[in-house]
Structure formats: structure tokens, C-alpha cells
Amino acid sequence: MSNVLLVCRQNEITKALTEIMRGMEFSMVDAVPSGSEGRRRLQEIEYDMVIINTPLGDEFGIELALDTIEKYLIGVVLIVKNELADQVEAKLMDTTAFVVSKPINRQLLTQNIKFVLNSKAKMQRLKEQNEKLQKKMDDIKIIYRAKLCLMGYLDMTEEQAHRYIQKQAMDMRISPRQVAENLIRTYER
After folding, report:
1. Which residues, by range, are in coiled-coil regions (predicted)?
2. Which of helix, strand or coil describes residue 128?
């Protein structure tokens, strides 16, 4: 199902969190005691979620959360003392990190983890849609450049140039973008 990285310096809490994660059917639960080891592990393995139990041995944990969110499309949950929860939430306000206060309520933690995983999945879909739209925009720009070449060198109207590119694409069984790129190479030397 999903992979989770636990960053926690306390063995007892790591064991308790691991037990909760296994109950949620995570396929891999990996644990490290420090932020630096967490960063190293994130470079080596693809995770779906990072749970940070603050404070860590080498840092508090906010820095790790911010680095993780900036570099990876990963859900992040920070577990902090109840009295620090508002301050940590304020620092992470414009991010997708989720703050859970101690003492940990197992049911609330489970709900938050599910929420973060669902949010991550939605973000992934949005990212893929964005990439598709970006590719489509790039295709349109290249096809338009090819139309300009045809209009400038062969005195075609925009409609004729469009039809020419579409017909070439069908006849040659390639994409209109490939036809446009060939035309640009031919006419823009």
C-alpha cells in the first residue's frame, strides 16, 4: 500500500507509532532517530508519508518538515507537545504539513494520517493534470510557430496552415507537434 518514514528519537514512541502504522496496513514502516538521517533516507527511498515526533536529537523537526515539503510530494505529520502546537502550526501555516499534539490520541492520529494520504493523492493528480496542460500548451506554441512559418514562406492562411499540419499528421501517422517540429526545422534555418 504505502511507505512511511518515522523520524523519532525515542524508541518506545517509535515502537508505538510503528504498531499504529502496521495496523493501518502500511507496506513499509521505516524509522530513524534524527533529522539528518531522515533527509538521507528520503533521498534513497520513495515514501508516501513522513511522521516527525518532535523534538529530534539534532533539530526540532520543523526544518525537516519544511525541507521535505519543498523537495518531495510527501504527506508530513508533525507530532508536538500540546503547548507548542499553535506555534508550530503558525510556522507551517502555508504548507501541507499536519500538526498533531501530544499526548497522542490513536483515533485522531489515524484520521489525520488518512486525511494526509488522501490529500497527497489529490495533490499527485493535480500535479499530473498540470503537467498534461503544460505539455498541451507547449504543443500549441510549437504548432503555432509552424503555422507562422507556413504562412510566411508559403503564403498560406492560418486555416490552410492548420489543415496542412493536421493532414500531414494523419498521412504520416505522427502527432501534429512532430509535423510542426519538422516544419520549423525546415523553414527556420
Report:
1. 116-143
2. helix
Q: Which of 20, 15, 13, 16 is nearest to 113 (CA)?
A: 20
Residue that has been written with the C-alpha cell 510557430 in this structure: 145
pTM equals: 0.76
Contact call for residues 43 and 97 (beta carbons, < 8 A): no
pLDDT tens digits, 71-117: 998 999 999 999 999 999 999 998 889 999 998 888 989 998 999 88
Q: What's the grid cell of residue 2?
A: 504505502
**Distance from C-alpha of 187 to C-alpha of 175, rounded to nearest angstrom:** 19
CA 30 to chain centre: 20
Delineate the domains of the chain, giving CATH numbers in brackets.
Answer: 3-104 (3.40.50.2300), 130-187 (1.10.10.10)
